[in-house]
Amino acid sequence: MSSYSFKRLPCITINKAKLKYNLQTLNEILEAKGMNAHFSTQAIAAYEPIIKIMHEAGIQNFADSNLDNLIKVKPYAKSTLLNRIPMISEARKVVQTVDISLNSELKVIFALSDAAVVENKKHGVILSVELGDLAEGILPEDLIDTIHQILNLRGIDFKGIRFNLNTFAGVKTTLDKLQLFADLAKQIEQRFDLSCEFVSGGNSGAINLFDNEEFPAEINHLILSQAWLLGFDTSNQFRIADLHQDIFSLYAEIIENKRKESFPQGEIGYNYQLENREFEDIGNIRRIILALGAQDVDLNLIKPKEKGIDFIGSTLDYSIYNISEYNREVNVGDLIEFIPNYVSLNRLFNAKRITKVIM
Description:
about 25% helix; eight-stranded mixed beta sheet; 9 helices; single chain; Lyase, Ornithine Decarboxylase, Chain A, domain 1; elongated
């Protein structure tokens, strides 16, 4: 493809029809299961044209780890959720900005309550529970005592509990983990004679377990990101239903196309990343340089759509590829298409130099 197809490069394209289909299909899957969900917008930095598409598709509940992003989605939202543990220093802003936050520390919850009282409102709190992934969360044995201490706080509305896997350690969401979590929810409801509004069973990693008859009925909520963005579950990277997995494409322009030696000439020291790299001498190779660098995205996390384009390395401004095994000719000004993953989407949507194009 020629670079003249786009006004500014590098750029990431968003297929509106496929995106809307994913959102509407997920809504149907959730409704059939009697589930609710908040849709996370942090990977797209709450990019407003996409938020508008989400709104058109019937999405009303939004989550994000960035308060400024949640301010952007507020006009489109029925409910907003801070999808991370708040800093105690931002308690007042959290209360002013969002309806609900995830929490695991009593000191922070006390600060949120004080801030909410000052603001003359109640702030919703979902307690995050540690179930093995070793990221955020209250230990299960401390859960009852924590709830006991927060139920009577003037500024806090206890909303329920959540666990989250597939994040830090990569522990999978399984039926055993879901049942353990459901049992905790039942214990809480019996102990305090209440009903949890949210028994939130994690993320996109739970969806492919919906059809299993052992899926706990107590689980009524998820926080979704990779499912609607990339069409797969986070536990096994399996496709969800017939969701699209190619909504996003990244394009970068070829700015140099030459044959060069594969092995550097001269004494090798450290490069810009303080790496002392090793090179394999495979002779003279076909190489291209793209106007896409490490300042834009982690180049190890994007994959060329076509085979035979092999990443060699980068600078902050450029990326370099071996195309000796590529089966067609390319010219300066042509575009190379990449498939971004979840983490690279976040970097790309936060990079000012990357143009965003709704197709």
